[in-house]
Design goal:
The protein is an alpha/beta fold. About 45% of the residues lie in helices and about 15% in strands. Bound molecules: 2'-deoxyguanosine-5'-triphosphate (DGT) and calcium ion (2 copies).
């Protein structure tokens, strides 16, 4: 198995966790956390960099020592240092650290003084009351440990894809909004940042004076709640029938902005903001921004997020950018991107019809798209190799081109572009002859089989496809399926660069289990002057809705309207689609 950047980040994070429990030097611990973040934020795989003989120490926060460790992980898939620490400190401790409210200090005490090294042991000790005897552990901690463990068990392992989380979040938010007591409702956390998967939902509400009890009743009484894990005055947690955990916090109106910043995260972003505040003698917490100490402590901001950012001389930073990947520097220099919105989108460039594996005709898809306010769609059915999806051969495609021509005569003020989602064969040639491809408005090229070729071969395969002058868009470039299939093993930077040089557009496929390209690659394309098509790959009318998830990911990739070709008028679009 090739080592991905995410694997390296995971290893470094575990090292940091375990070192922290061991009571290692704070700087050392932080170095591993920083390294994990740096590696995860790279568009290129560390493996590629090594293969190119590049100096890993040029990455921020990576010195000789860490560079050596990255090399070891890439070569062996493991880090001997971690194996060693694991022998000394049981891996169950990492899991214990993930429970809210249990930092390294507490875990260290639990392990050092009571010998507890797993969630099971922890639960037993909490039930028997043993943990409450430890210094710094009161009845409250004991209760919260039990609740957390129970919640974990009820929701099971794993994260929810953003679209699936949205299915459960939306009706709950509606339910809360309808309450007369509740004033404002926001789902914060990773959900608000538009991450492709979320661990749990973090909802913040403000309410009328004296109605917190009623708000909690309304929350825990929601029809989809399977179990109430905890209920307090300001915070309650429930598990929905789907297994999704939802935390609800009632916050004061004066703190709403500060709480939003805090609970939207990400944690590294928060920490960086708080540090800027410290440099100005400001204390930034979930309750507000405060100046002065003791009796003279004064709240200087907190009602809105804008206020909080302004207190450290920054403009509002959109939630999708809050990953501590350069957004704070950009904000400081007035260089935040003007992120693309759903309203900017004028068409969809990847739509299937019943001619291959879609459920509707081109006309039906066109009408649904027009209803959404679009000006155009491109019909891109599968090509012949994909027999399971009833792919088209040249004759069938010829016929479809004719049908679409006639359809366009009938559609007033809306255009259907002709296209194909053509298979990239194992050798990098395309599944249909150039003669028919050149008849089309656009050609979307895609890998649909032979996912496990070795990196060199797989990369060459795609590069060769990009060399075909008829290819306009590279479809779901990494072919990953979130939680199901890893990305293909390729030199992504080489592929993206080649595409940009040739004027090939990269697709951000908006299917909830694809979201491919991911945020980091989108940013790479933008930074290198390339263009993206955000496309839904719709097989049904309702799939056109997926555009909103594509846009969330595009925003996480720092994309502006100008970076996304389907924000263009048809005329402009045709210009961009012309190959260099
Ligand atoms: P998730 O749920 O795993 O998808 O990710 P998040 O980002 O929603 O994380 P979660 O639910 O654990 O916490 C929500 C936010 O609360 C998180 O993004 C940042 C903030 N937060 C949580 N714990 C801490 C902390 O120890 N320090 C700081 N500064 N912020 C925290
Ligand atoms: Ca969360
Ligand atoms: Ca949470």
């Amino acid at each position: 198995m090739p080592v991905h950047n995410a694997d390296i980040a995971e290893i470094f994070t575990e090292v940091a966790d375990l070192l922290e429990i061991e009571g290692a030097n704070q700087f050392r611990v932080r170095a591993y956390r920083e390294a994990a973040r740096t590696i995860e934020g790279q568009s290129r795989s560390a493996r590629e960099m090594m293969e190119n003989g590049e100096d890993l120490t040029r990455l921020s926060g990576i010195g000789e020592d860490l560079a050596g460790k990255i090399e070891e992980i890439v070569k062996t898939g493991k880090l001997s240092q971690l194996e060693e620490i694991r022998r000394e400190t049981p891996p169950g401790l990492s899991e214990m650290m993930e429970l809210a409210g249990l930092g390294p200090k507490k875990v260290k005490a639990l392990y050092g003084e009571l010998g507890i090294s797993s969630l099971e042991e922890l639960e037993k000790a909490a039930r028997s009351g043993k943990v409450a005897e430890l210094e710094g552990f009161g009845e409250k901690t004991r209760q919260s440990i039990l609740e957390e463990i129970e919640a974990r068990r009820a929701r099971g392992p794993g994260r929810f894809k953003l679209a699936r989380a949205a299915e459960f979040a939306s009706p709950l938010v509606e339910h809360l909004r309808k309450s007369r007591e509740i004033k404002e409702v926001t789902v914060a956390g990773s959900y608000r940042r538009g991450k492709e998967t979320v661990g749990d939902l973090d909802i913040l509400v403000t309410c009328k004076r004296g109605s917190r009890e009623k708000v909690m009743d309304r929350f825990t009484g929601f029809e989809d709640v399977e179990k109430t894990v905890s209920r307090g005055k300001t915070k309650s947690s429930v598990i929905l029938r789907s297994g999704l955990q939802v935390d609800l916090r009632v916050v004061a109106q004066v703190s709403y902005g500060a709480a939003l910043v805090y609970f939207t995260g990400s944690k590294p972003h928060n920490i960086a903001i708080r540090k800027i505040g410290q440099g100005r003698n400001l204390k930034i917490s979930e309750y507000g921004v405060f100046k002065g100490k003791g009796d003279s402590e004064k709240r200087v901001a907190g009602k809105t997020e804008k206020e909080v950012y302004r207190s450290v001389d920054l403009p509002f930073i959109p939630p999708e950018l809050r990953e501590h990947r350069g957004e704070i520097e950009a904000a400081r220099e007035g260089k935040l991107p003007d992120l693309v919105t759903l309203d900017d989108i004028r068409g969809d460039l990847h739509v299937h019809t019943e001619e291959s594996d879609g459920d509707y005709t081109a006309r039906e898809m066109a009408e649904a798209a027009r209803e959404r306010g679009y000006e155009y769609i491109a019909v891109t059915d599968h090509s012949r190799r994909l027999t399971v999806a009833a792919g088209l051969d040249p004759g069938q495609l010829e016929k479809q081109i004719e049908v679409i021509g006639k359809l366009n005569e009938k559609l007033d003020g809306f255009s259907v572009l002709t296209g194909i989602e053509v298979d990239i064969m194992e050798d990098g040639t395309l599944d249909l002859p150039d003669g028919i491809l050149k008849e089309l408005d656009l050609v979307v090229a895609a890998v649909h089989y032979k996912f496990d070729l070795p990196a060199g071969k797989q990369t060459d395969r795609i590069l060769r496809a990009l060399d075909n002058p008829h290819v306009s868009i590279l479809d779901h470039p990494t072919t990953r399926l979130i939680g199901k299939r890893p990305p293909i093993d390729v030199n992504m930077e080489k592929i993206l660069t080649a595409a940009i040089e040739r004027g090939v557009v990269l697709e951000l496929n908006a299917q909830p289990d694809r979201l491919d390209l991911n945020d980091v690659y989108c940013k790479f394309v933008r930074d290198h002057g390339g263009r993206i098509a955000v496309s839904t790959d719709s097989h049904r009318l309702s799939d056109l809705e997926f555009m909103r998830f594509g846009i969330r990911q595009a925003r996480r990739g720092w994309l502006e309207a100008d970076d996304v070709i389907n924000t263009r008028s048809l005329k402009q679009l045709r210009k961009v689609l012309r190959r260099k």
